[in-house]
Write a structure and sequence with these properties.
This protein has one domain. About 80% of the residues lie in helices and about 0% in strands. The chain has four helices and no strands.
């Protein structure tokens, strides 16, 4: 019984998913805004806002990834659902942006 549990731990496989990539991109962008900014000028108001938004987006994508991983066991289906989720989110953001602005 113990051998099977050890084999499961040793046989851990990293599953790369679209929301993992989004999380990594958001964390890198958040670190970029925390350190400097786009053109080297330090504007603490916008850098702090963008840093907060990047970290919040990373947290949301990480939690969403965990929820999708628990509910969808197959990696191929997980990629399809997460990609559809990302596309749906981007489309909704664009629709709201065009309606508001």
């Amino acid at each position: 019984m113990e051998e099977k549990e050890v084999q499961k731990i040793e046989g851990f496989k990293l599953r790369l998913t679209p929301l993992n990539l989004i999380t990594a991109i958001c964390l890198v962008a958040g670190g970029f805004f925390a350190l400097e900014g786009f053109d080297g000028r330090v504007d603490h108001n916008f850098n702090g806002l963008f840093f907060t938004l990047c970290i919040l987006a990373a947290l949301v994508s990480f939690v969403s990834d965990l929820i999708f991983r628990k509910s969808i066991p197959l990696l191929k289906n997980l990629w399809i659902v997460e990609t559809a989720f990302i596309v749906f989110t981007v489309v909704m953001i664009l629709i709201i942006k065009t309606l508001v602005f």
